[in-house]
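Researcher: Next entry: 2-dehydro-3-deoxy-6-phosphogalactonate aldolase (Actibacterium mucosum KCTC 23349).
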Amino acid sequence: MSRNIIAILRGITHPQAVEAAEALIEAGIDQIEVPLNSPEPLRSIAAMAENCGDRALIGAGTVLTADDVAAVKAAGGRLVVSPDCNPEVIDATKAAAMLSYPGVFSPTEAFTALRHGADGLKIFPAAQLGPSYVKAIRAVLPPETPVYAVGGAGPDNFGTWFAAGATGFGLGTSLYTPGLTTAEIAQRAATIVAAYDAALG
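Model: Predicted structure:
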């Protein structure tokens, strides 16, 4: 079962990248991004794409430019996640036949992203907007639009976000912080997957 969870491995290092990805996949999380402000992110993405790309969607976060998109593509990534809505990044991502999840904070940004072909929206930072914002914007978004809450969503409140209309989550520190062992990542992932499944009913 594939879940609408994107694991955000900010700060992961190349030596741990593949084993961390394997732990996430085993737990049931098969969408993984390495933010480009991590150490040697493209090296980690390339290793994960080579070893796990047939079982997981691997890509990058904190993608800010079209050049970044090209670099992620060259590394074997298929997913591009950004903190902002930059039409140039979305256009470059779609031209490269990759999936685009830009960060949006307003209806204007949300519809700009969709008009440029974004595959889904990253509501960020979600904690500042809250589930009520997702409920409100859902009233005007195309109903099939994937909406991921990122920053403030986690296993303690999945149900609240689902009820408001979120379809998925980007999870960072609740899944991974630098220094965690792979066993600790696996344990956190299992807890998160159990909470996600319970919230879905």
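Model: Note for the record: The two ends are 14 Å apart (CA to CA).
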